[in-house]
Every structure is written in C-alpha cells, then in structure tokens.
Write a sequence for this structure.
C-alpha cells in the first residue's frame, strides 16, 4: 500500500501557531489569539475543500466540552477564593531546595488528579510565582505528569477518551490506573530532580 502523504499544510499551520505562542506573550498578546488564528485557517481550508461540513466542524470543536471546561474553571475559582488558596498556601513548601520542589510537584500532581490540571495550575501559579521560577516549574511538572494517574486529572486525557469513544474503543480503567501508578511517581521524581539540577547549574 502506498504511504500516506505528509499533511504539509496542517504541519506548516501548526508550526506557525506554535511560533505564535512563543512571540505572543512577549508582545503583550494572549496566546489564545494564535490558537484561534490556526483554527480559523485550518477550518476555512477544510470547508473550502469540502473535506468537512459546517456541522461537522462545529461538532469537532466540541462546544459542550468547551462549556464544561469553562464551568469547571469558574467553579474551581470560586472554591479557591472561598478558602482553598489558604489551605494550599500552608501545604506548599518554601524555598527551592530539592525537597521543596518535590513537595510542590507532589501537591500539584495530587491537586490535578482531584480537580483537573487546568484549574489546578490556575490555583497554584499565583501562590508559587512570588517564590521564583523553581516552584513555578515544579507546579508545571506536577500538573502535566501527575494527572496521568486518573482519567479526570487532565483535559488531554478527557479528550483522548472522547476520541476513543467516538471510534468505538473503550479504554481499560484498571490498566490505565496501573500504568499510571507505575510511571507517574518515577517520572515526577526524575523530572523534578532534573529541574533542581538545572536550577543549581544556572544559579537561579
């Protein structure tokens, strides 16, 4: 069978979108505008070539899922404002020692598995930003690697399950959890140690 053609145009748009992420923040723009531009270009091209219908395009955007994410963020923001931030502030270790960074990453991972990684990062970044780049990066490690313990921990995992369900494939919860238990603690620890070593190397 012939090899599938390389999707050059989508790859170019993806590369430009990623470049937009990199330059938008220093330019004082929200990175969401870069993402929106990429979506509009790809969507317009697909419609023009009649690869999809408008209804299929709207369905692919998953408006109900987007509404769920928005509602989740609003609810968690209310919980954070109602006292969760104070509790988290007491849980987060101070400093940029290896033990402190491991503690921050662990708190971030646990919180992400409880309330999802997007609300978790929104709750934790304001608390860790004054402490410097080390704790902030430890939070990012925790909310990106930690959520692989549960289905609900990550928006990416929720989208992955949605795609599988659309194609008639059911993911095994037990297997997912076992793999998470085997890999998450190790990758979390190794990544945080690497972060600590890099911070020591660059003197931050």
């Amino acid at each position: 069978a012939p090899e599938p053609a390389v999707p050059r145009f989508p790859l170019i748009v993806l590369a430009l979108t990623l470049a937009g992420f990199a330059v938008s923040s220093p330019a004082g723009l929200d990175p969401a505008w870069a993402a929106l531009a990429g979506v509009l270009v790809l969507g317009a091209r697909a419609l023009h070539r009649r690869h999809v219908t408008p209804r299929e395009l709207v369905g692919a955007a998953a408006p109900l899922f987007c509404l769920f994410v928005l509602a989740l963020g609003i609810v968690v923001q209310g919980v954070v404002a109602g006292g969760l931030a104070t509790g988290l502030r007491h849980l987060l270790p101070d400093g940029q020692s290896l033990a402190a960074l491991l503690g921050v990453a662990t708190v971030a991972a646990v919180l992400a598995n409880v309330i999802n990684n997007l609300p978790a990062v929104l709750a934790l970044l304001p608390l860790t930003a004054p402490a410097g780049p080390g704790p902030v990066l430890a939070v990012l490690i925790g909310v990106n690697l930690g959520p692989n313990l549960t289905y609900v921990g990550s928006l990416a995992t929720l989208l992955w399950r949605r795609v599988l369900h659309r194609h008639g494939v059911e993911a095994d919860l037990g297997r997912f959890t076992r793999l998470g238990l085997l890999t998450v603690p190790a990758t979390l620890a190794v990544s945080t140690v690497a972060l600590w070593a890099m911070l020591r190397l660059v003197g931050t």
